[in-house]
Structures are given as C-alpha cells and as structure tokens.
Automatic annotation (TrEMBL), chain A:
One of its GO terms (molecular function) is cellulase activity. Its EC number is 3.2.1.4. Residues 1-27 form the signal peptide. It is an enzyme of class 3 (hydrolase). The keyword DNA repair does not apply. This is cellulase. It catalyses: Endohydrolysis of (1->4)-beta-D-glucosidic linkages in cellulose, lichenin and cereal beta-D-glucans. Belongs to the glycosyl hydrolase 8 (cellulase D) family.
UniProtKB/TrEMBL annotation, chain B:
Residues 93-102, 547-562, 571-582 have a biased composition (Low complexity). It comes from the Bacteria. The lineage of its organism: Bacteria, Pseudomonadati, Pseudomonadota, Alphaproteobacteria, Hyphomicrobiales. SUPFAM superfamilies: TPR-like (SSF48452). Residues 1-17 form the signal peptide. This is Cellulose synthase. Residues 83-102, 514-603 are annotated as: Disordered. Residues 514-523 have a biased composition (Basic and acidic residues). Keywords: Signal. Residues 83-92 have a biased composition (Pro residues).
Length: 350, 765
C-alpha cells in the first residue's frame, strides 16, 4: 500500500470508521493527456501556475495543486519546474511557510507576506506525493519542514478542539471581534494524515475530527450549506467582512470529503441538493436567504455534485463531465481532482 | 574573447572567498566541541596575507529555527599551506551532504561553456567557486583550447543556466533522466543550479525583509558568500542588522572590505552600511580605507556623506549632539564646493540651534548659488528671528505660492513687519502687495495686524475697516474686535464701542473694561509686573497689544521647516498622518519655539501651569508627544481659563499624535474650545478612529467614522482611499471602484493602486 493510502486509513480510524477505507492520491490517477492539456494552459514554462480567473496572478494554493496534479500524472519534469518556482518565489517567509500571493504585474510581485494555510498544506502534500512518485526523499524533507511549522503555528486549540488558523495574520483572537474565523474548505482531509506522518508532533487527528464536525456545525440557512468563512465565536455564523455565501471556497468541501474516502451519506447529501440548481449548474448561495447569487455551468463545478451522485448512488457521470477540457484554472483543477478519484476508485461511474 | 582572458587574469585574491556561516546543518555527526560544530569554511587564495578573524557571538543574540546561528560566525581566510591551521580544510558540498568526499575530477564544463559564450561575469564566479571548493585546483590558462562540448543537450542545459531559467533547467534535467535512464546530470551543474536558485530565493526574501530566511539561506549555501556575489553579502549584512545582530552586520561589511577588491563595490559597501550601523561601527569600517591608484582615499565621498548626515540630524533634532568635526567638515564642503545644498543644511542647523546670524550667512550663500524656495524660506526665517522682517518679506515674497509652509513664512514676515514698533514706513509698492496678499488669503491674524498698522500710522478709519473685514472673515477674532473698539473710541463713536462691548460681553475682559482707568485695566489684563513688584509703566493700548500679537504670529522655526520628502506609503499610514490636525493652526501665544526649552527631563508637576503649557508645546515641537501630554496635564490642573483651554487642546493633539483617539477625545472635553478647534479636533479624531477601525478589520465602523467626518470637513484623497479599501474589505467592489476612481482622477497614487487592487480582488479572495 502506498503511503498516502496508509495515511488515509489512519484518518479513517481516527474518524471512528465513519467512512470506507479508500486509498487516495497515489500516482498515475491523472491521465497524461489531461495533465498535458491542463499544464500547457495554466502552467508557465517557469513553473508558475496561473489563476486566469483572477487576473493571471498566482498563489500558494495553485502551486500546491500543480504539484499534486503533476505527481499524480507522474510528470517529474513538470513537477520540478513548479517546485522550483514555488521555492524561489513563494517559500520566503521567516517561518518557512509560503507567502500566499504572487502578482507578476506588481513590483515586487509579492506585496503581502501573509500565508494561506491551505496553500501550505497543499504544497506539503504535493511534495510528499512527489517524494513517493519519483522516489525523491529530499522532497519529503521539504514537506516535513512545512508540515512542522503548520503543525506548530497554525493548529490552535479552541474550546477543547484543534482548529486551523487560515493564515498567520488576521482571523484569530485580538485581530477581530468575531474571532476565531475558519475556512472549512482549508481542511484538505486527504492531506492531513500525510502531514501527520511528516510532522508527528501536532494533533492532526484532532484537526481532522474537528474539521469533519465543523462541516456539519457550520451548515446553516434554508439550503443547509456552510459559508466560505465561518466565525466560531458563540454559535457559528458567517464571518464578518466576508460575503455570507456558500461560494467558490466551500465548493471544494464535498470534493475533499470524497477524495479522503469519506462517503457518509448524511454529510454529503445536503451538498448535492444544496449546491445544484434545477438546470444542473452549481450555485453560489446566499446563506441567509438560500438564493443563488450566481449560477456556474463550468464542468469543473458541475462534476462535484455528480461525484457525490456516484459515490452515494453509483450514478454514472454525464458524458460532458467525463471528458476533460481546460476552461479556467480553478474549475479545471477541481475537475482533474474529481476525475482522478473516479479513475482510481469508481471507474464504473465514468 | 580577449576580455575573458583578461578578466581571468584580473581575478584577484579575494574573488574566491567565502564567508562561512556556521552550520550544525553542515555536519554529518553531532560534534563534540564548538570548533567542530563549525565547519570553518575556508577559501584559498595563496597571495592574500593571512588574516584570521574569529568572532564571538554577540551578547543577547538569539538563534533562529533549527540552525544554530547563535554559534559564532567565522569568516576566515585560509592560509596557504605553511600557515598554522586550526582551520579545517574545506569540504566540498557532497561531503557536507552526508556522502563521502572522494577526490574528484574538477568539472570544468561550466567554465568552458561560459568561456565560449563570452560570459565573463559567470566565468569569474565559476572560477571563484571552484577555487573555493578545490583549493589545489589551478584554472586552465585558456578554456577555449579545450575541445568543444560534444553533448548538445547538456549544452542546452548550460544555456538555460546562463539565462537564469532555473525552473526550466530543473525540468530539462528531469526530462532527460526519464528519457535516458542511464544519464546522470553533472554534479557541478546540480550544485550550481541549487546555488543559483538559493540566490534568487535569498534576494526575494531580502526584498520582503524576511531576514531570518536570508540568514538561513546564506548559512545553507556558503558558496554564495563570495566577492563575486557582493550583493548577497550586502543583503546578509542588512538581514543581520534588521534582526538586531549589529555585530554580525558589521563583521559582514568588514569581511567585504578585508577581502573584496572592486573599488566601486567597496565604496558601495560603506554606503550600504551608512543607514544601518551606528557611528562607531561605521568608523571601524572607514578604518579599512585604502588609497586608490590616483592617490585619493577611497571613502572620501562617504566621509563627506557621513558628516552631512550628522549635520542633517542636528538640523532636525535640537537635542542631538553633533561632533564639531562633522560641522567643520560640512562647512568646509560648503565653502570649497559650489553646491547649494551644503550651505542650506548648515543654515537649518544653525537656525535650529538659535544662531540666526550664522544661519543667515549660510542661507544667503545657498541662495546666491541657487535661488530656491527652501533657501528663501530659511533665509526669511532667520531674518525674522533677527528682527529684520522687511528683508524677510522681500526674500520670500516670490516663493509664497510654493507651499503652505512657505506661505506661512511669508505671512510671518509681513505680520512682523506690520508690527514693528514704532511703525516703519513701508514702501507703497510693498504695502500694496502685502494688502493684496492679505485680501486674497483672508488671513485674520494678518488682517487685524494691518488694522493695527493703519491705526499706528494715523489712518484710523482705514484701521476700522480692516478690523471689520477681519471680523467678517473670522467672527471670533478677539484681537480685531478689541482693535475695532479702540479705533471707534478714538473716532468718538461711543455707540460703536458699546456695540462691540455688547457683542463680546462675557467673551473678552479687556473689551469689557475699555474706558476704565488705564492702570487698573493693564493690571487686570494680565500684564506681568516687573520683578520689583510694581505695576508696569503705562503703555498705550495699541502698544500693549501689538508686540504680543506679533509674537503670536511668528511661527516656530521647527514648524515651518520643509517636511521630509515623502516616500510612497501605504494608505493607512497616510491616513494616520491625516488624523493629526495642522500643527500650526491657531497656535497659542505661549507655544513658540523649541529654542530655550530644555530638552532634559523636567517633572511636569514641578512647573507652574503656564510654564507647563509652554513646555508642552515645546515638547510637541520636538515630537515628544508622550511627555507633552504629561506637561499639558500639569497645566490643566490649575491656571487661567485660557491656559486650561490651551492645555486641553494641546493634550488632545498630543494623544492624537500618539494614536490614542479615545484619550484625545477625553482630553478635548476638559475645557471648552472654540468652534474651529472643536471642528478640527473632531475631524482628526474621526480620521484616527477610521484608521484604527480599518487596521482592526472593522470596515463598517471605518465607513461610519468617515461618513461622520465628511459631514465636518471634506474628505481628502488619502481618506477616500482608505474608504475604498474599507469597501473592498466589505466586498462592495462597485463602491470601492467608484471611490478609487474619484480619488485617482486627481492623480492620487494610492487610489490608482486601489483601483488595480479592486480589479485583482474578485471571487475567492
């Protein structure tokens, strides 16, 4: 069993048998042609992963996704260019974590030294996948450095649980009246046990348990969906200063759950009903009213409820979602992650 | 190609030197003794004299991360063979990484490639690096004689390396390893690539002031620390200085001076150190000065700058102690040179230190060389100090439109000219332009002063008109009302006098008491009796008033100094500054100039209220608001109503400058203030509140505070920008865009940046 697979089992045990034990994320689950189409569109020769939906900037999240997808596609050359860029341009912080944003049009391209914890987690996870796929222990060393800092500084005890601080600055006590504010989609569930192996000193199991509980606790409103940003001060509420929406961040929650092998019906059911509109598009949902503030037809978004259909009911994927065509960085990333899971675990749905 | 060979020949003794940072990270086994912990990286250049320096850790320095940066840094120059050698021989990186270190063939492919490319800089760096790694290695005489590279793929890789396309090179190596499993990349290529990436990363971290990262990378890649990469050495020194490790910063600069030969880089090293190191350390660096081939001391320019910097400090801080040598040096430069800036510096220096006569001399010299706004401003101030306001008026008239500050100086000059006692005859053309300026700017202080001047030269009716006009501009201008009452009385207009007295009933004691016996009036007006206790000799009313008015109007020297040139600053800092009301506005008579105010510690409670008030203003001038607040508090505990009012005002200004909006609000309520002050304080308080709310991420409060403020005063660009960012924080991108557009339309830089930020911030972030 590959190490991520073993790690997934650790997570399963930690969660008390809540889900079936499914290994996820070993190499060669992303088709070479799909990855080639993705990387020729969204990865520059210098290894910068471009968020074309956000004005062509880059960020730690995108570099992390790039590493993960390259490792799963077995493309060492592509992996190495992304890693080189990530290391030289983002892994600059004194604490060893990545600055979160890189804008090539700005001089210098980095203007804010804050980190985004999910970006750090995705990078560490991607490095660890690369270490396994390409037999490169040096990548594990780099991953362990990041995981250790995340474990020591971003995992915080709050009211008896271990939570994840979304970034070094902001979000937590003293920074804002509604602290702590969390982003449940920053819990990359499949990565947590892997980071736990890399940095055993921190309470990764507790973090996973708290994250899973938060998916349910922060779901609210007529559609019973979690907001992108939730304040946990008192009763969970949407975080102040953020749109009170189930939006682009939170779309990822069911994807991350399924990819980690968590196929619990009670957890997943509200997502596929809440996020899907009658016409099949995926909705950005205003939490309080339950109204759709935007409807998105991109296959990369639509595949998420379809993935839930598959794991809960064995429903086959609609034909237009089974084929990958790059559209925009973010939905295309989600699309590849969903297809990779299906290829590996539910070929019957494709 | 000749240049390549020449460059090689010119490679000096220091080019291959390393600065060795200690590193537990480099060791393969836990070392037993300290000198083992440190692998004192040596470099070998036989020609250099043996200079071995061992540095002890600076007291109080703390380590970072897992790298034992607390252990001594050693920068050692390895001796040629015969030297006694406590310094271990340098191990190549392979050994440091845990592998064995077999004697290996020196890989010269990179050298050959760079030689063929004519890439002198990289060729030099590579020679330096190889020399450091392999002390016994002797560079070939002519790289071009070596047979050409026969591996085109490898050649392409070196090409990528030469173009700094490191990510693509990584990719190319991985690709070839996949397609040709038998191929292994030359270790030299991998080493160089790792070092090159580390260099880019170090520079990026340095630009973001991530100093621990800089130090860590330098420690991990000691081969970066050579004279060939002097920029890296400078950045390392800056990182040490930025993390309070001054001794290490100094040592790093010293290392460059002891080792590196390039004259312009040596000079630049001093210039880099100039703003970072204390003077004593800089002097130690200067001691490494050499004489250049043309016989000039190589750091002459820096020595001059150092003296200028010192005098500049002395021209801004009244209590700074400046070495007489520095002043003498700048005076020498000012006399022998032909720049306008050196004498200007000396002018400000002398002016702040109360020597207006010397100041006049230097400002004149500067102005003769270049008639600038600043030199004219300084000269006018000096002349006002010297009681020659007529000359001051003439000097600064042409520059009055340049800035608000210079306009204030012009007004000070003309007000003082009008206040000269006995009145001087002012040339009609000068008087005409003074009248024009006052009418145009509607300056109430100047307006009433013109009234007193007219009164003094016997134009009583004109005087009445000016007092009336002034009251029209500023209805609560008591000095004008008093003047009006006096000239009406002189004109026999008793009804007019009574009208003024009625309107000012309860607001001005001296207006109410007009017509009472003189002696009684003067005493009650608060004229200070002479030390013998007798009442002052009887002055005429106008004489009694005028000098005091003139005093009031004379601006403090420090307050009208030109502000330092503003760098680009983020909007919140600009907004914070906007929170402080104009310092010069309505300065109370007592708060004049820092001159004569002792800068040592004085217990505020030991002072009488009036003295405490004076000291408060003085401390404000010196920008010591914390102490000023205490002095104002002492003044608030007693004293006249006016003293208490001024003290409360001063205390709120002091708290505002400290960023303590709540305390400022409380202080403002301790004594009733004029309408104008209330408005000014409220605006400042609300700006401060908006700024702190923004910094705390409370965007709704930010906007509420700004809304409230905009009902009092118009919103200036920096606060509009703050408002824009607050809207962004609330994801109200449409509103943010509209605000940024409005501010950007006036050319406001931060607003333009805000516009770009709105466009970038979309969906998820």
């Amino acid at each position: 069993m590959s190490r991520p697979a073993a790690a997934a089992r650790v997570l399963a045990l930690a969660l008390g048998g809540l889900m079936s034990i499914v290994p996820a994320g070993h190499a060669d689950t992303v088709a070479a042609a799909d990855w080639a189409a993705y990387s020729s569109r969204f990865v520059e020769p210098d290894g910068r992963v471009i968020d074309d939906g956000n004005g062509g900037i880059s960020h730690s999240e995108g570099q992390g996704y790039g590493l993960i997808l390259a490792a799963m596609a077995g493309d060492e050359a592509g992996f190495d260019r992304i890693w080189s860029f990530t290391q030289t341009n983002l892994l600059l912080r004194d604490d060893g974590l990545a600055v979160w944003r890189y804008d090539p049009r700005s001089r210098p391209p980095v203007t804010d030294v804050n980190n985004a914890t999910d970006g750090d987690i995705l990078i560490a996870y991607g490095l660890s996948l690369g270490a396994g796929a390409f037999e490169r222990p040096d990548l594990d060393t780099a991953a362990a450095g990041i995981a250790t800092t995340v474990g020591a500084t971003m995992l915080r005890r709050y009211e008896g649980r271990t939570l994840m601080k979304p970034g070094a600055a902001g979000f937590w006590e003293q920074n804002r009246p509604d602290a702590p504010v969390v982003n449940v989609s920053y819990w990359v569930f499949e990565a947590l046990p892997v980071l736990g192996e890399l940095a055993p000193g921190a309470d990764w199991d507790g973090l996973a348990r708290a994250g899973l509980a938060l998916v349910a606790e922060t779901s609210m409103g007529p559609r019973h969906l979690p907001p992108d940003w939730a304040s946990l001060k008192g009763r969970p509420r949407p975080g102040q200063g953020f749109p009170a929406e189930f939006g682009y961040n939170a779309f990822r929650i069911p994807l991350y759950l399924v990819r980690a092998g968590i196929t619990d019906r009670a957890l997943l059911e509200p997502f596929r009903h809440g996020m899907r509109e009658a016409d099949g598009s995926v909705a950005v949902v205003d939490i309080a009213s339950g109204r759709a503030t935007a409807k998105l037809a991109d296959p990369g978004y639509r595949i998420i409820p379809a993935l839930v259909d598959c794991v809960l009911d064995g429903t086959r994927l609609p034909a237009d979602l089974a084929e990958f065509q790059p559209t925009a960085y973010y939905p295309s990333t989600l699309h590849l992650l969903a297809l990779a899971y299906l290829a590996d675990h539910r070929p019957d749905c494709r | 190609m000749k240049s390549v060979l020449l460059a090689l020949a010119a490679l000096g003794t220091g080019a291959g030197a390393y600065v060795a940072l200690t590193g537990a990270h480099l060791g393969t086994a836990a070392p037993a003794a300290e000198h083992d912990v440190m692998r004192p990286l040596s470099w070998s250049q036989g020609a250099a004299p043996v200079v071995r320096t061992n540095f002890r850790p600076a007291a109080g320095e703390t380590g970072i991360g897992h790298i034992d940066i607390n252990a001594p840094i050693r920068m050692a120059q390895a001796a040629p063979a015969p030297a006694p050698a406590p310094v271990a021989p340098a191990a190549p990186p392979a050994a440091a990484n845990g592998g064995a270190a077999p004697a290996r063939q020196v890989d010269e492919t990179a050298l050959r490639f760079f030689a063929r490319q004519g890439d002198t800089r990289r060729l030099e760096a590579e020679v330096a690096r190889l020399r450091a790694l392999y002390p016994d290695w002797v560079p070939p005489d002519d790289f071009l004689s070596v047979p050409a590279e026969t591996d085109p793929l490898l050649d392409a890789m070196w090409q990528l390396y030469a173009q700094s396309r490191y990510a693509e090179l990584r990719s190319a190596i991985a690709e070839r390893q996949t397609s040709e499993p038998a191929w292994t990349p030359p270790p030299d290529l991998l080493d160089r690539l790792a070092v090159a990436e580390a260099r880019v990363r170090l520079v990026n971290a340095s630009n973001l002031k991530q100093f621990d990262t800089v130090v860590r990378l330098a420690a991990e890649h000691p081969s970066l620390l050579t004279c060939a990469e002097v920029d890296v050495l400078w950045r390392l020194a800056e990182a040490f200085a930025g993390t309070e490790r001054m001794l290490r910063a100094k040592d790093t600069y010293l290392y460059v001076l002891d080792t590196c030969q390039n004259p312009s880089e040596r000079l630049a090293t001093l210039q880099k150190a100039l703003p970072l190191l204390p003077r004593a350390d800089l002097d130690e660096l200067l001691a490494r000065e050499r004489t250049s081939p043309d016989g000039e001391p190589e750091f002459a320019a820096v020595r001059d700058d150092l003296a200028r910097q010192s005098v500049a400090t002395g021209s801004e801080q009244a209590d700074a102690v400046i070495a007489p040598d520095d002043v003498a040096k700048v005076e020498d430069l000012a006399r022998t040179g032909d720049t306008a800036s050196d004498p200007l510096l000396l002018g400000w220096y002398r002016l702040l230190r109360g020597n207006a006569r010397e100041a006049e001399r230097w400002f004149r010299l500067s102005r003769d060389r270049e008639n600038s706004a600043e030199a004219s401003q300084g000269l006018a101030l000096a002349l006002v100090e010297l009681d020659r306001p007529g000359e001051a008026e003439a000097v600064v008239y042409d520059w009055r439109e340049t800035s608000d500050e210079i306009r204030a100086v012009y007004h000070a000059a003309m007000i003082n000219l009008l206040a000269v006692e006995p009145p001087v005859a002012i040339e009609p053309s000068v008087l005409a332009r003074i009248v024009g300026e006052i009418a145009e700017t509607r300056d109430p202080t100047a307006g009433q002063q013109l009234g007193w001047y007219a009164e003094a030269i016997g134009q009583t009716e004109t005087a009445a008109e000016w007092f009336l006009t002034t009251l029209y501009w500023k209805p609560d201008e008591e000095r004008a009302a008093y003047g009006l009452a006096i000239v009406r009385s002189r004109l026999g207009d008793e009804a007019g006098v009574a009208e003024v007295q009625r309107l000012w009933s309860g607001r001005s004691e001296r207006i109410a008491r007009l017509g009472e016996p003189e002696t009684e009036r003067t005493r009650r007006l608060g004229a200070v009796p002479p030390p013998d206790g007798t009442v002052a000799a009887e002055p005429s009313p106008s004489v009694a008033v005028q000098p005091r008015v003139a005093e009031t109007a004379r601006p403090a020297v420090a307050a009208v100094r030109p502000a330092p040139r503003e760098e680009q600053r983020p909007p919140r800092q600009v907004a914070a500054e906007a929170a402080a009301p104009a310092r010069r506005a309505e300065r109370p008579a007592a708060g004049r100039t820092p001159r004569g105010c002792s800068t040592g510690f004085v217990a505020p409670d030991s002072l009488a209220p009036a003295a405490a008030l004076t000291r408060g203003w003085c401390l404000m001038e010196l920008n010591r608001p914390m102490e000023a607040a205490a002095a104002f508090a002492a003044a608030l505990r007693g004293g006249s109503e006016e003293t208490r009012r001024d003290a409360a005002y001063g205390q709120s200004l002091a708290y505002l400058r400290l960023g303590l909006a709540d305390q400022a609000a409380v202080a403002a309520t301790q004594a009733p203030q004029s309408q104008q002050r209330v408005g000014e304080l409220n605006a400042a308080l609300l700006a401060q509140r908006a700024t702190s709310a923004f910094e705390a991420g409370r965007y709704v409060e930010t906007i509420l505070a700004l809304d409230e403020r905009s009902r009092i005063v118009p919103e200036q660009n920096d606060l509009m920008t703050l408002r824009g960012y607050a809207y962004m924080g609330l994801r109200r991108y449409g509103d943010a865009r509209r605000i940024f557009e409005a501010a950007a339309a006036t050319g406001h830089r931060d607003a333009m940046r805000g516009l770009a930020a709105v466009d970038a911030a979309k969906r998820r972030y």
